[in-house]
Amino acid sequence: xxxQNRFTRWITTPVWVFILPSxxxxxxxxxxxxxxxxxxAGTDFFTYALxxxxxxxxxxxxxxxxxxxxxxxxxxxxxxYILARWKFHGKTALELLVDLPVVLPPSVxxxxxxxxxxxxxxxxxxxxxxxxxxxxxxxxxxMAQTFVAAPLFVRSAKGGFVEIDPQLEEAAxxxxxxxxxxxxxxxxxxxxxxxxxxxxxxxxxxLGEFGATILFAGNLIGKTQTMPLAxxxxxxxxxxxxxxxxxxxxxxxxxxxxxxxxxxKKVHNS
Length: 270
What we know:
The chain is mostly helical.
């Protein structure tokens, strides 16, 4: 289309029907992020970012989100393969169970974990005689993050396994491959982009988890206080720390989402 025809199309077509609603949403999405960066620039950013409370929350967040992501990948990859390639009764119910934490309100997720594994919980009371207490510990943070983030990995990995041509699976069986060899030498190499994308989504979601964590693990500095919890506490005690941590989380999220978009482009172009 020539520039003149394109200009004519813009003049004769009510493009505002598309542009105006888009601008409203973009402003709603962009202004709060801009405001955080603007406000943090007006404070001693690095002083707050290097404060003991901020560094403690950062270390704990990186540790727990990494552990929860490793747990999600280790346990979620076999589950995703089962859901993608196997046929069995109750599969729909199992898929529903996996997807449920994605749509549950964070407060419900945290309450469910507390009721299940609290000291007087349905299953937690069995752990007390063994000297195991999960609530308000670092392990509780990992459990909360895994509960809300692992389904994202399972969904992404499942999509990658589903897209693999079934004829490749049949060819592998004809060549004498067993289920484990098929998974290792055929499925993993072909689905690696989806697996990596799921890992990034899971780590990002775990890093930003708040609701389930504060209910099940509490907000103990150096023990269960992750970056989102430190931001919440900072609204009452130190706005500078809250702003610094918010900026750091936004930057990390932007970087990870950028990597994810590049992976999606490679998938579409391949």
